[in-house]
Design a protein that fits this description.
Blueprint lengths: L4 H6 L3 H28 L4 H4 L13 H10 L20 H25 L9 H20 L7 H9 L6 H20 L1 H20 L1
Helix pairs in contact: 2-5, 2-6, 5-6, 5-7, 5-9, 6-9
Length: 210
């Protein structure tokens, strides 16, 4: 059973706490940088002008999303701003920007898995091995979480781009109540569902690259 951030502190596992915190910060920063880079490639300078086209994690961490990581084991970064009217692809540009973050996490998960597969079994207790294992799991978790079509998660942008005009009222509803839905789900449902799914997906990545 995986221990949460608070549990690690209670049990005095400070090295694990720091290791996981670093993995979380890095995974979120690269995720949000992926959005900003995709926005820039789409011809929209909004993310760059907002200072988000950077690997500096301070610019990407969302206070409440980070708190949720500590409390329930997962969270999110600060949404990257964009101006849909400035995107080269007016129809699917927003979806491409939204999908870029989870795609970065998928790539990072496979890179982590490939590195783990090449480490000697004798290193399984080392900091490097434990970091890569946590980094793999966290990137898989972020990828899965962020494709959920609930604001402020990336799936809401993807859903908004692919829904036909006569279904856009779904997006309006989610924009109004999505955060409340996400908060309730994060506290009551998602921890029990996402954890086992992310663990199974992480094991699948390891099998694929190994």
């Amino acid at each position: 059973m995986r221990l949460g951030m608070i549990d690690l502190l209670i049990h005095g596992q400070f090295s694990d706490f720091i290791l996981i915190a670093l993995a979380i910060v890095l995974a979120i920063a690269l995720h949000e940088f992926g959005h900003a880079a995709a926005d820039e490639l789409q011809g929209d300078p909004t993310a760059r002008l907002a200072g988000r086209l950077t690997l500096n994690p301070v610019r990407h961490l969302d206070p409440f999303g980070t708190l949720m990581i500590v409390l329930v084991g997962f969270g999110w970064g600060k949404p990257v701003p964009m101006t849909p009217s400035k995107l080269r692809n007016r129809r699917f540009g927003a979806a491409l920007v939204g999908a870029a973050g989870p795609l970065v996490n998928v790539i990072l998960a496979f890179v982590s898995g490939a590195l783990l597969a090449r480490l000697s079994p004798a290193t399984s207790g080392s900091l490097a091995y434990r970091f890569l294992l946590e980094f793999l799991y966290l990137n898989v978790l972020l990828a899965i979480l962020n494709v959920l079509p609930i604001p402020p998660l990336d799936g809401s942008r993807i859903l908004g781009a692919i829904l036909p005009p006569n279904k856009q009222h779904i997006i309006f509803f989610l924009d109004q109540y999505g955060f409340v839905i996400l908060l309730i789900a994060a506290l009551l449902v998602l921890p029990r569902i996402l954890g086992p799914i992310a663990t199974s997906a992480s094991n699948l990545v390891l099998r694929i690259v190994g």
